[in-house]
């Protein structure tokens, strides 16, 4: 007799039906070509962008670098500081809205073509097929008893996977530690603790996710697969099976029940059972089914990108409020980001009064106040900044009034202001410091502070 505990256990087991390792059949076609084009494009950008250099004031630096130690982000000629966090927030919002918009328009295109999990799994499976053979040969090898030949093939495959994972980790860390410094440090075993941690973590993560977990990530680990449905509407186009045309199978319908759509699916689902959250919209089942239809003399498109309205034969509508909201938000945040970037000042100044001495009375009667100025040059070129002061009659600067500030740096400078003695003013008086940059088209920054008088 089943006890309540046994019923609970059986119910839990049904939530995850273990199918074993999936070896998808290779297929050619327009979606497979597009998929591999995206693999090449994304990896050329990822592996190559960290090697790009950018010339600044006659010197060269890495073009894209997240310099966490110095709190700077270099994007070619753009240098972003913590003060520019709003731009990063806007960029993340735009990325999320773009993903939502594409999902509402055509389902999980991101998952099928540019998701890192998809990209690296495709790359690792391709290496596996070169070493172990096609999907049938791999299935046979997995079920074969242990042997020297099997061990050599498996070890060779995993060794290449580990090399790719290691280079991927090096490239990733190379965006945070200049890669031209990272490689010699690796050769000398002189990398720091944080670099070591991320090299091991990201390399292991890539190897496990793309080589071992594979489709399990899309089936059971990816949160996007769980909430994608809330972004769909009846007009969303997904990879779908036209049951009105295909059924009944082998008895008048176009579907001959060959099962090739299941064989080529990287997540091992049967698209003929309807839309499923495991489907990543890669379109490989479309390529496979179109080839079968061509061989049987029937038109393609039995499996295709189609909306719920199209499959049911209902007339659609161009009124899609979900898309309109996403597009409106994209426009708003894109405009806000462009305006924020345009209004972004390349010169910031922080004024700190000398707390050790409020004022100094000089032998000639002048009153002096000391300040520390932090001049922040956010531009990608050196700037010569000139300083002026106003607010008290005959207020003057003692010492240099011009300072060179290197590109993308903060220079603290000591500034002394002097006012003539015998003035009718007393106590703390408001003044203004004007810092001008001739290289920024006469850009001027004004900072309020105070001047102490007896």
Based on the model shown, name its key terms.
Immunoglobulin-like, single chain, 454 residues, alpha+beta, disordered N terminus, 4-stranded antiparallel β-sheet, 44% helix
Would you summarize the structure shown here?
With 454 residues, this protein is α+β, with helices and mostly antiparallel strands. 44% of the residues lie in helices and 21% in strands. A hairpin with a 5-residue loop joins β15 and β16.
Structural account:
The chain contains 16 helices and 16 strands. By secondary structure, the chain is an alpha+beta fold. The strands form five sheets. Strands 8, 9, 10, 12 and 14 form a five-stranded antiparallel β-sheet that branches. It has a four-stranded antiparallel β-sheet with strand order 13-11-15-16, with no helix packed on it. A hairpin with a 2-residue loop joins strand 4 and strand 5 (78-80).
Anisotropy-based shape: elongated
Beta strand count: 16
What is the radius of gyration?
32 Å
User: Low-confidence spans: pLDDT under 50, at least 5 residues?
Assistant: 1-18
Q: In percent, how helical is the residue content?
A: 40-55%
DSSP helix count?
Answer: 16
- Name the structural class: alpha+beta
Query: How much of the residues is beta strand, in percent?
Result: 15-25%
The overall average pLDDT, rounded, is: 87
Largest sheet: 5 strands, antiparallel
Report how far apart the termini are. Answer: 96 Å
């Amino acid at each position: 007799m089943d006890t309540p505990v046994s019923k609970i256990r059986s119910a839990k087991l049904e939530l995850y039906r273990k199918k074993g390792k999936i070896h998808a059949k290779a297929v050619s076609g327009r979606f497979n070509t597009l998929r591999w084009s995206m693999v090449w494009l994304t990896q050329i950008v990822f592996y190559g962008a960290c090697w790009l250099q950018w010339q600044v004031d006659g010197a060269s630096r890495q073009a894209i670098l997240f310099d966490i130690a110095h709190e700077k982000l270099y994007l070619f000629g753009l240098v972003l500081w913590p003060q520019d966090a709003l731009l990063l927030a806007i960029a993340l919002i735009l990325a999320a809205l773009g993903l939502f918009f594409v999902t509402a328009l055509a389902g999980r295109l991101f998952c099928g073509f540019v998701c890192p999990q998809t990209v690296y799994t495709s790359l690792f499976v391709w290496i596996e097929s070169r070493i172990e053979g096609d999907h049938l040969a791999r299935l046979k090898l997995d079920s074969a008893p242990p042997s020297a030949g099997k061990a050599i093939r498996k070890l060779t495959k995993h060794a290449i996977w580990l090399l790719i994972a290691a280079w991927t980790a090096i490239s990733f860390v190379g965006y945070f530690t200049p890669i031209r410094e990272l490689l010699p440090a690796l050769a000398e075993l002189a990398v720091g603790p944080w670099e070591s941690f991320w090299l091991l973590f990201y390399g292991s993560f890539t190897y496990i996710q793309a080589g071992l977990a594979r489709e399990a990530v899309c089936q059971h680990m990816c949160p996007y697969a769980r909430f994608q449905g809330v972004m769909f509407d009846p007009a969303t186009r997904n990879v779908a099976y036209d049951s009105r045309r295909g059924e009944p199978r082998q008895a008048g319908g176009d579907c001959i029940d060959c099962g090739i759509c299941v064989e080529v699916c990287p997540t091992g689902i049967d698209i003929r059972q309807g839309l499923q959250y495991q489907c990543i919209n890669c379109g490989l089942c479309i390529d496979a089914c179109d080839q079968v239809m061509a061989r049987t003399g029937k038109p393609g498109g039995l499996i295709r990108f189609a909306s719920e309205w199209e499959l049911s034969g209902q007339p659609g509508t161009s009124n899609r409020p979900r898309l309109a909201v996403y597009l409106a938000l994209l426009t708003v945040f894109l405009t806000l980001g462009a305006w924020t970037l345009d209004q972004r000042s390349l010169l910031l100044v922080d004024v700190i009064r000398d707390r050790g001495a409020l004022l100094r009375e000089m032998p000639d009667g002048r009153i002096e106040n000391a300040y520390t100025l932090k001049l922040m040059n956010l531009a990608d070129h050196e700037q010569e900044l000139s300083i002026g002061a106003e607010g008290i009659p005959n207020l003057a600067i003692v010492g240099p009034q011009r300072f060179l500030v290197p590109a993308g740096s903060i220079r603290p400078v000591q500034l002394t202001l002097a006012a003539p003695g015998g003035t009718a003013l007393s106590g703390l008086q408001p003044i203004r410091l004007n810092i001008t940059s001739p290289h920024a088209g006469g850009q001027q920054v004004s900072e309020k502070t105070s001047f102490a008088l007896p």
